From TrEMBL:
GO molecular function: succinate-semialdehyde dehydrogenase (NAD+) activity
Phylogenetic lineage: Bacteria, Pseudomonadati, Pseudomonadota, Gammaproteobacteria, Enterobacterales
Keywords attached to this entry: Oxidoreductase
EC number: 1.2.1.-, 1.2.1.16
Protein name per the record: Putative aldehyde-dehydrogenase
InterPro entries xrefs: Ald_DH/histidinol_DH (IPR016161), Ald_DH_N (IPR016162), Aldehyde_DH_dom (IPR015590), GABD/Sad-like (IPR047110)
Signal sequence extent: none
PANTHER family: SUCCINATE SEMIALDEHYDE DEHYDROGENASE [NAD(P)+] SAD (PTHR43217)
Keyword DNA repair: no
UniProt domain Aldehyde dehydrogenase: residue ranges: 9-106
């Protein structure tokens, strides 16, 4: 759960009320820099082949599985989700990455107009 103050966002464990992290709000210059990086990344990503995009999804799925327990614990702390559900969420997310890596390229093929 995230709470906001005038100067920072607090990540709070909803079960215990413990503050997990405090993140300062970005200023205008930091926001502009982040937007610039995002625009630059988009320009590179749109030139990335479908095969490489699919591989990136496979890599993300693999990383999710490699860090599944750590991520599930984090989900539980930050959102109050029961650990069993958090583990299932990470597993499902990895499986979705795999599915879209496998089936996504076909979805991007042009379809003939009848």
């Amino acid at each position: 759960m995230t709470m906001m103050t005038a100067t920072q966002a607090l990540s709070v464990n909803p079960a215990t009320g413990q503050t997990l992290a405090a993140m300062p709000w970005a200023n205008a210059q930091e926001i502009e820099h982040a937007l610039s990086l995002a625009a630059s990344g988009f320009k590179k990503w749109k030139m990335t082949s479908v095969a490489q995009r699919a591989q990136t999804l496979r890599d993300i799925g693999q990383a999710l599985r490699a860090h599944a327990e750590e991520m599930a614990q984090c989900i539980t702390r930050e959102m109050g989700k029961p650990i069993k559900q958090a583990r299932a969420e990470v597993t499902k997310s990895a499986a979705l990455c795999d599915w879209y890596a496998e089936h996504g390229p076909a979805m991007l093929n042009p379809e003939p107009t009848l």
